Amino acid sequence: MIREASQLTKQAWVQQLPASVMVYPLSWVDRVKYFAWRIYTPMHPAVRDFLGAVGLVNHTEKYPRGRQPYILGHIAPGQTMQEFVAYVVGKGFGNHFVAFEDRGQVVSLRHVDNFKYQYHLRIFEDGEVRGHYEYTPECHPFLHMKEGTMEPRRDEFLKILADKITVAEHSE
């Protein structure tokens, strides 16, 4: 059932998810970044895919199975991927289409904590759910790409996801 949902994803329902909304920054430096990203964002998926295709950026080569760390669990039995994603969107997450994609990823969602930090969830075709807390690409694009600021924040994610996932025993 999860695989069927993932096949529909790129065709329809992920494209229709509400986009994540960036918090308007307070400092003038961050406002410049904010407006630059507003202009650049529509082009980012093409730039990201091009850089990956020519080998200038390989986002997942350092991770086992091609997925970032911090597994939270799997979508709980009895619910579809669309139901799970609808629940998470209802909790304030939005489609983070500018993010790099991990192997087998169906959807990337984020909840912006403030202009500087975000909670980032990835849902995979096998129902696996992974998440981390990190810099937003809008505030610190290079630090974000280096992934040195990722934190698990497992307990916070599990409070949000409640009984919607079967919790993994370890977080990698």
**Beta-sheet strand percentage?**
15-25%
Gross morphology is globular
Most strands sheet:
6 strands, antiparallel
Instruction: List the domain count as a whole number.
Output: 1
Q: What class, by secondary structure content?
A: alpha+beta
**Order of strands, widest sheet:** 2-3-4-5-1-6
Q: What is the distance, rounded to the nearest whole angstrom, between the alpha carbons of the first and last residues?
A: 26 Å
Report on the structure:
The protein is an alpha+beta fold and 172 residues long. The protein has one domain (2-59, 66-167). 32% of the residues lie in helices and 20% in strands. The chain contains 6 helices and 6 strands; from the N terminus they run αααβαββββααβ. It has helices at residues 2-9, 28-40, 44-53, 81-90, 141-146, 154-161, and strands at residues 71-75, 94-95, 105-112, 117-124, 128-135, 165-167. It starts with a helix and ends in a 5-residue tail after the last strand. The model has no long low-confidence stretch (mean pLDDT 86).
What's the layout of helices and strands?
Layout: H1 2-9, H2 28-40, H3 44-53, E1 71-75, H4 81-90, E2 94-95, E3 105-112, E4 117-124, E5 128-135, H5 141-146, H6 154-161, E6 165-167
Antiparallel strand pairs: 1-5, 1-6, 2-3, 3-4, 4-5
